[in-house]
User: Fold this.
Amino acid sequence: MAKAKAKKKVAPKTKDAKPKKIEIVNIVVSGQVDQDKIPLEKMAATLPNTEYNPEQFPGLVLRIREPKTSALIFNSGKIVCTGAKNMEKVEQAMGKIVEALKKIGVNIKSKPQYKVQNMVASGDIGMDINLNTLAIKLENTEYEPEQFPGLVYKLKGTNATFLLFTNGQIVCTGTKSKEEVEDSVQKLIKKLKEIK
Assistant:
C-alpha cells in the first residue's frame, strides 16, 4: 500500500508538459564611461575588492557585493559587467562602478552608455530529451558524451545556442533580451516535439 502511494506522488514527464521556469542567470553588458583615461593603478591601490595585474591582463576586475556582479574596467573607459540577473541589477551595478570611479577622483559627467552582449538563461523544459537521437537528426549539434554529458545545439534562425541534457535541463546563451530567450526556448521545444 505504501509503495502505491509513493508511486502516485511522482508524476511522469510527458512530451506535452509545460516548460518549468527558465530564468536569466547572467547578463553580460559592455559600456563606456566618458573618460579618456581611467587610473587603474590608483583604483587597485585605493579600492577593496579589486584585482589588477597588467602583465597578465590589461583590465582591472572590480567585484561588487550588491548586486553580486563583476566588472572589467579598462583604462580607455571601457567596461564589461557580468553577473546581473535582470536589467535593474545591471543598472545598479553600473551605478556602483560610477561611484567607485568617483571615489578615486574620476570625474564622470554622464551615465555610462551600455548594451547587452549576451544573456544566459537556464531551467527545465519539462520533458526528457534523447541526446543520441538529436545528434543524428539535428544539424548544428556537437555531442561527445565521453567528454561531456550535454549536447550543444545552435538553433537555426536565432542567435541562441543551447546546452541540452537528457533530464530536460537546458542552458541558453547568445540572446540579448528576455523576449529573445523566451522566443528561442519556444522554438526549441517545438523542434524537439517534431523530432519525438
Summary: The domain at 125-195 is CATH 3.30.310.10 (TATA-Binding Protein). The helical segments are 2-9, 40-46, 87-103, 131-137, 178-195.
